[in-house]
Structures are given as C-alpha cells and as structure tokens.
Amino acid sequence: MAGFEQTYLGKLRASVGTGLLLVPGARIVISREDGHILLQLRSDFRKWGLPGGMAEPGESLETVIRREVREETGLSITGATPFGFASDPVHETIEFPNGDRTQFFVMNFYTATFTGTLRRDGDETLRLGWFSATDLPDMLDNMRRSVERFVEFRRTGIFQMF
C-alpha cells in the first residue's frame, strides 16, 4: 500500500491539519470454525482491534473491507455480511497519537469464509491472533463495542445500530 500521505485521507490531512474529520469506514469480525475471532495488534495505539479501515474515493464499503483485510492480514475474504453500523460520536470519535481527530461512520461486517495465509503487514499490524469473544485482550473501545454488538447480533439476529 502507498504511504499514508498518498491516500485520500493523507492528502486531506495535509490540507486541514489535525482538525476533526468525518470519515466512512468498515471493520470486520472474521471467525474460524472454533468461534475464535481474528484481531490485530495495531501499530498506532499498540492495542488490539478488528481489521478494517477508511474508504478511498470510488470504493464501496464492501470493497474497503476486502482491501483492508488483504493488506492487514494477508487473507482474502468472501461473503462479508453486514451486522451493524457504528456512528455514536462518543465512541467513534478518535484522537490518534499524532493528534489527528476523526469521527468514524463504520459499517461492521462478519465472515467465516476466507482463504490465504495469515501474515501481518508490519506497518499497521504488529501481530495477529485468534481470540474468544468472551476473553478479549486490551482493545480499542470502539472495536470492543463492535465485537460485543456482533455477539448480540448472533444472539438476536437483529441488525445493530450503535
């Protein structure tokens, strides 16, 4: 992937600085047969989170999630199904370590179908691991909420707005 400066958001940040931006994005719960979910140890916060990212011009959110999973984990996913939408500014407004502030509007997907060999990208992802949804590591709050809402979706079948 091109450096951050070359992305849509990187170019926008060069113009507006660290001020608050409203950004569409996607994240995904990838589960394997034993029910464990894939998490990534993020390089920016040094906390665990779900694979995902922000949209680039011309991308659908489904395209975003396929691209981000491939870049961050080495996996190719199929059958990504939406289970919820996260937009609560209390939880989805993030200040990054460099001072950039972003409010996310995130479609949350899930899948249990994937191919490829797990590999971290070494840039955004420091480690990858499989975890039980009931025994999660130190995670970003908004990502933990996505996992909790996925569990609720699985229990009720009701699309989650959070």
Description of the molecule:
- With 162 residues, the protein is an alpha+beta fold.
- It has one domain (18-161): Nucleoside Triphosphate Pyrophosphohydrolase, CATH 3.90.79.10.
- It is built from four helices and eleven strands; from the N terminus they run αββββαββαββββαβ.
- The protein has helices spanning 8-16, 61-73, 89-92, 141-156, and strands at 21-30, 37-42, 48-49, 52-54, 76-78, 81-86, 93-95, 101-111, 113-115, 125-131, 160-161.
- Strands 1, 4, 6, 7, 8 and 11 form a six-stranded mixed sheet that branches. Strands 3-2-10 form a three-stranded antiparallel sheet, with no helix packed on it. A two-stranded antiparallel sheet has the order 5-9.
- A hairpin with a 5-residue loop joins strand 7 (93-95) and strand 8 (101-111).
- The chain is globular and about 45 Å long.
- The model has no long low-confidence stretch (mean pLDDT 95).
**CATH C-level class:** Alpha Beta
Q: What are the secondary-structure elements, in order, as H or E? A: HEEEEHEEHEEEEHE
What is the overall pLDDT average? 95
CATH architecture: Alpha-Beta Complex
Broad shape: globular
| Tally of helical segments | 4
- Structural Rg: 15 Å
Topology-level CATH name: Nucleoside Triphosphate Pyrophosphohydrolase
Poorly predicted residue ranges: none
| Helical amount | 25-40%
- SS content category: alpha+beta
Q: Biggest β-sheet: count, sense, barrel?
A: 6 strands, mixed
Topology of helices and strands:
Elements: H1 8-16, E1 21-30, E2 37-42, E3 48-49, E4 52-54, H2 61-73, E5 76-78, E6 81-86, H3 89-92, E7 93-95, E8 101-111, E9 113-115, E10 125-131, H4 141-156, E11 160-161
Parallel strand pairs: 1-8, 6-11
Antiparallel strand pairs: 1-4, 2-3, 2-10, 5-9, 6-8, 7-8
